Amino acid sequence: MKLKHVFLFMFFIIGQIVTAQQKEITLEEIWGGAFSTNGMYVLHSMNNGQQYTVLNRQEGSVDKYDYKTLQKVETIVSASNLPEVGSFSSYSFSENEDKLLLATQVESVFRRSTLGIYFVYDIASKKVIKISDQKIQEPTFSPDGKKVAYVYENNIYVKNLTSGVVKQITTDGKKNKIINGVTDWVYEEEFSFVRAFQWNAASDYIAFIRFDETEVPEFSMDVYGTKLYPQQHVFKYPKAGEANAKVSLHLYNLNKEETSTVDVSNYTDFYIPRIKWTNDPAVLSVQVLNRHQNQLDLIMYNTATRQKSVVIQETDKAYIDITDNLTFLADNSFIWTSEKDGYNHIYLYKKDGELINQITKGPWEVTNYYGYDKKSDRVFYQSVENGSINRDIYSIKTNGKKKKRLSSKEGTNTAKFSADFTYFINTFSSATTPPEYTLHSATNGDLVKEIRNNDSVKEKLANYRTSTKEFFTLTTAKGHKLNAWMIKPADFDTSKKYPVFMYQYSGPGSQQVANRWNGSNDYWYQMLAQKGLIVVCVDGRGTGFKGADFKKVTYKELGKYEVEDQIDAAIELGKRSYVDKNRIGIWGWSYGGFMSSNCILKGNDVFSMAIAVAPVTSWRFYDTIYTERYMQTPQENASGYDDNSPINHVEKLKGDYLLIHGTGDDNVHVQNTMRMIDALIAANKQFDWMIYPDKNHGIYGGYTRLHLYTKMTNFIENTLLNKQ
User: Fold this and answer.
1) Where are the beta strands (DSSP E) in 295-420?
2) In this structure, is the dihedral angle defined by the CA atoms of residues 700, 708, 651 and 503, taken in order, positive or negative?
3) Is there a single domain that holds both residue 372 and residue 418?
4) Are residues 539 and 445 in the same domain?
5) 3-state DSSP call for residue 642?
6) Are residues 489 and 551 in the same domain?
7) 328 plus 449 within the same structural domain
8) For residues 523 and 648, what is the distance between their CA atoms, to the nearest angstrom?
9) What CATH number does the domain containing 543 carry?
């Protein structure tokens, strides 16, 4: 009798284990944050190199930690002690770290730009100064910590923190006309910066870019909201081939209280994607890019002599990418990254532009530049030397010798170095390991201490029915070797035939096949796999980290070679015994939506379904900087624009097609989808579509993501899983 009870108990336990392991991932869990990982937020290395600070969001404080012990040294400031400030969402130090700038009531403008109420907190006196009663943009300490410059309603202001006096240094700022000190929409989106003013080292000059948007065409969006009548959001948006804002560079002399203009270009139509003061307070560096973005001038301008010189002029047969890697050394020699030898590498130049040395070399890409340590004469960087789907941390002498690999685990490693390059905090993840944070010696990469891991997420996931993400190289019939991954159902049976659902983004220089931990979509793919799908991702030609030739082959022909590769990849997958070649679908968002639309049209005998979220349907509808970088203008390259735009191939539609867009998308306008719909109707083609009122390019907020992914899941089930 007792033995029977033991057997029953064991049977019960085994049953519980099996049941637990068979748990299915749900959309509610994915978008409810069930698999979220913990990170380290707003980490700042202190000037002494031995301590760092982090923003403790839960406690509402800025806390200081010791690198060596990882123990908290002190709380520098806490929201609980600042009733006049309240909770703050970010912080930044003055250069000598005696003051903090605290951001409150922050609201988004576009992708990177924000407005907020800001306070200066004096650490020694514990006094608080409110910078302005109005919501302002981009407040920035002067290097001496005595002033703060900021932008309000397109004009630049400077507040003296001692006297409290505010000086307005530009007066012509006007919405949709003139912008001073912050970027216009297209610069923010495509050159990835907002603050367009810079203090010099002596705190007596501010360099700033002025944008004259007068001739830029306006774009308007209806905002439906909850009121009886919709409102209109009107902003300047230069579409491909249209007028850009006219940019000019100016210097404000705080001692003389006067502004001068710097003539920086011989071009008639150009961009100023970066300005940066050198270590010499009289010398400003300016990067000037022609409209085709295939010639970049690095200019040094001397405020004392008013002389300028082009120290580097780079040209490319296709285009030049802008980075933030320019670093000035003590003598104003500088470090620069370039693709000029066919791969992105690090170079060292004298201050006059004479090449000293190419620091890194090889058939691989430098993917991040971390900085230079003078005492060891070493440069620290991240690269794909260990395979293009991986990232590792290295250091190397400026003469290109004595290279050291500082990371040890295969996957994605990113580093945050202490100010004196004694330590670095490494963030590591892979397809099988969630993010873990460890402290290392910057000298040799040795582990000092573990800081934080996300083992609990991995343990939780072990209770679910999931599959391994398999990385492989897919070779097309044309001989192109492409990075890929595949997720099969957990009960995969080689004797069965499965439908395939492909995901891609495919934009120039992008990467989706990477050895890193799951994002939200990866959990969705796991869910789909357990429903009976094989999910595949292929990075075709045009994507990044395999050299300039691989990336830039799509120049002037966006949507040609990338689409060919997705079609060819699907054909190769269809040859596998376990794949049902008549049930292959594809999806993507933004550029990926452009691609999935093209694939079901140009590859109508290969793909039976497609989902396109927020797609570009004609490059004529997209902005100047991005589109012309890869395509030149429509006036110069009409066939490149029209031959590869989905809107011009709607008559080829055979399969099931779902279009999704948000009406509040300021980036890829809903105009793209509306014009696509109009073309499909004119061609008498049936399709499905979903519009999200007032949602932007990310289509999120409340239950929106859950609704969106439920919509797509149902569509996939009806068109791939339930169709024989």
Assistant:
1) 295-302, 307-315, 327-328, 334-338, 345-349, 355-358, 366-373, 378-383, 392-397, 404-405, 412-417
2) positive
3) yes
4) no
5) helix
6) yes
7) yes
8) 35
9) 3.40.50.1820
pLDDT tens-digit readout, 191-238: 999 999 999 999 999 999 999 999 999 999 999 999 999 999 999 999
Compute the average pLDDT of residues 366-375. 97
The string of pLDDT tens digits covering residues 324-366 is 999 999 999 999 999 999 999 999 999 999 999 999 999 999 9
Please report the pLDDT score of residue 4 as a whole number: 39
Mean pLDDT of 596-620: 98
- Determine the pLDDT at residue 445: 97
Grouping H, G, I as helix, E, B as strand and the rest as coil, residue 284 is strand
Residue 552 located in a structural domain: yes
As a whole number of angstroms, the distance between CA 118 and CA 103 comes to 5
Same-domain check for residues 486 and 368: no
98, HSE (Cβ side, Cα atoms, 13 Å): 10
Query: Which whole number is the average pLDDT over 437-447?
Result: 96
Residue 57 maps to a domain: no
In a domain, 376, yes or no: yes
**343 in Cβ contact with 363 (< 8 Å):** yes
d(CA 512, CA 586) in angstroms, rounded, equals 14
Nearest Cα to 173, choosing from 153, 187, 157? 153
Instruction: Give the separation between CA 388 and CA 393, rounded to whole angstroms.
Output: 14
Do the strands 481-487 and 469-475 form a parallel or antiparallel pair, or are they unpaired? antiparallel
- The mean predicted confidence, pLDDT, of the chain is 95
Beta strands in 361-480 (DSSP E): 366-373, 378-383, 392-397, 404-405, 412-417, 423-429, 436-441, 447-452, 469-475
Domain that holds residue 341: 323-430+433-455
Report residue 343 as tokens: 């791969």
Question: Per the domain annotation, does 68 fall within a domain?
Answer: no
What letter would DSSP give residue 182? B
Which two structure tokens, joined as six digits, stand for 125? 């006196």
- The per-residue pLDDT for range 122-152, each reduced to its tens digit, is 999 999 999 999 999 999 999 999 999 999 9
Contact 595, 504 (CB under 8 A): yes
Identify which of 249, 189, 182, 247 has the alpha carbon closest to the alpha carbon of residue 219.
189
Share of the chain above pLDDT 90, in %: 94
Alpha helices in 243-286 (DSSP H): none
The total domain count for the chain is 2
